[in-house]
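Re: that chain you flagged

S.,

Sorry for the slow reply, it's been a week of failed gels. I finally had a moment to sit down with the sequence you sent. For the record, here it is as I used it:
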Amino acid sequence: MSGKTGRGNRIEAEIEKSREESNWKKVVELAEHLKARNQPGLETLANFLIGEGKLESYLEENPPIEANIPRAKTGLADARRYLLMCIGEPAKKLEVSLDALLLLSKLEYAMGDYEGALGRLTSAGLDQLTEKALPTRSLRIIAESYAIKGLCSEKIPLPNNSKYQRADKADKMIRCFELAGDLTLLYLQEQDKLRSTPSTHSLHSLPSASTTGSNSPLPPNGVENKKIGVILETALQRAPILHMKAGYVDKAITRYRNMLSAVESTATQHLRLTLARQLAEVLLRGCSEHSYSAPNKDEKSRSSSSLKAAESPWKPQKYTGTNLFVPKNINEEIILLLLISEAMAVREAVLSQSPEFKNARVHAYDNATAVYDLLCISLARRKQHQILIEVFERAMKFSHEATHVWQQFALALMCGRKNARALLVLQEVHRILPSEPHYCLLAAKICFQQLGKIEEGLEWVDKALKSSEERVSMLAARCHLFHGLGLTLEAHHAQRHADSHALRQKALESFVRSQQLDSSDHLVEFYLALHYAHSRLLVEATHHVKLALYLRSEHPHSLHLLILLLSAQKEYEEALELTEAALAEYPENLHLLYVRASLEEAVHGGEVALLTARHMLSLWQNLYKEQLMGEISDVQSQFNANHDSYSIFNMSDKDTTSVHAESVAASRVEQALSEVASSLSSYQPKPGPQQAWLLQIQIWLLTAQLYLKTDQVNEAAQCIQEASSIFPMSHHIMFMKGLLHEKKNEFHDAQTCYQNALAINPYHIKSLRHLNNINVHTYTCMISAYTTTLDALNIQYLHQNDLNIHALNLDPLNQPWSGLLTQGQSVPHAAFITRGHATWQFSGGRERVT
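Prediction finished late last night. Pasting the structure tokens below so you have them in one place:
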């Protein structure tokens, strides 16, 4: 007899173990053996086990969703019959009646009988259950029961749809889903303990982003994720959604945090990716910095109630410790959540390209791209482009032919100023999507504006034009506009005037064609105005820039151009008035302030303009000083610095435009000279983004120029010294030093400074012009002194060999100098005229150059 009892105990132990492991086939086999023993009470227990096994095994293959309801009505009939046998008085004595009622509610929910399912739960007394420690299988049954109660309540409409009833119903559903979620997390944690899964209960079990991309074709936890079931997975995600529907975003955020702070289990690794992404999305869309409450503040505010909750046996275990990172603001929490989600998404990526893994590959890719889109929104707002680039670099291993990721990668590289790499990625995008013209235009923009590759940029424009003509794209007008821009830049490089004129005519034709295709594009009118301005057709340029402002009144570049056109027509007061109006809209626009200082100097004098220059320096401090002193990367603040400095460099000198090849060469020469200077002297480049420092140089040089015009030479010298301490090898600084020496009548030193500036940038127009003026002034003084000497010596050497000078055509501008000498004057044998490096010696009536 004792042998039979021991055998029965072993069968029951195997049954419990199989139930915990969800091995339902074995549960049914063992229940059949148990039923065959014909002992009192075992038959009811066996029927319950058979009904449970048939129900669970069927739902594993056919999840309880609406599409499977017709099939479930017939497929679950056998399981229903067995479970109905376990709800009478004999079953109550064996304590299987409660579980049978709960499983019957699950069965009827799968069959679409929502009211019947709620009735079973009411009969079971679900709301009156005591919170106590339970076996893992019972935890799952009760968790599913609360989830089913909430799901059925959503399906059944209210008899009287009043506001009070709706609120009461929503509160009850939220409570059901929250209880179901807590019990689910606790059940999964207990399951991991039973299986003794190593290191899944600590934060260190999360693999880092560097250990991503396993060689397995499927995600590592794909099997485990299925065991959570559709009902429980829905319950976990449903409570915060209902909170948001009711307008309680803060409660939804708190619920997400509670679930994510629970100790991770094997089966929740995939689900945590979804929850973390959803919480990040809620924080991005539904929470502002003013209404944000940090997680630690939430814990303090709920300290009194959380103590009781922590002691509840139905609450999951949470991470605790002193070294846990807690976000202090909304930006930290969003980026932390998204980076964790990205690490998990990359880890679960399917690398195999085999057709049998297509569905898994698409599912993993969709999860990853959803995270990447949120990362783009969050990081781009804060100019964290370098982090975004690193994220997309990790995504490349599973993004074969995935156009969306490649497109985002290219845009991130462009924003991060990685222009050469961005061009290579855009080439790949064009290979994948040859019929999309806008990526060709982006590539052309990089070539024109950043790399100075005008011919390659025009090739990209031709590809865009071809694609737009084939598809009749709305971008055709913009393609012609880019074509005109490329031709304009090419015309600037042309050495012959005829070639430049021909290219500008072709550019004008492209602009006009773009205008015909899209007459509402303000950029077309703007570039037409710019074209006419370069051609000195100021009336036509003014007409088109006014059209551009009519189409888009807030376009700052059109305002800037109109101001310059007014000043070119000597309408300084009108230009200054327009500048003040533009600055009212853009008070921190440094290049508009630069123009205002120049106009104020012309209208009100240099003292008024100096006030604007000082304001520009203080504004620069406010905009960039904190960024330069802070521990941030170059890319973070380079965006603003590039935008402002680009405009100032352009308006101060046309030869400093970044897309011009000569200015690119000049910047490289300056950089090389600076490196040599830093190695040979104590000069060290300023820390932080160099574009911001170059912008400050321009402000110092403007201030120095205004001081020179107001005869404040010492102050101008101090400004130049400040600029030299930042970047001593700039040709702009060399030129300003030349102006300073010229103001002091130190013409030789001024000539040296201008020559140094031209040695760095031979196309610097202002240096060429001032060097020419100094040469003309020097030669005029020499010739005047020479004619005085001739008058004195003519008496003494009147009868010696004479040289009749009728014309000396030595002027660089080919203007005759004969008017400076009297016809018939004699030049002695020893007379010399020095010009540059050549010396003209007149001797014995003959001249020769040495």
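What I noticed first: The chain has 38 helices and three strands.

Talk soon,
D.
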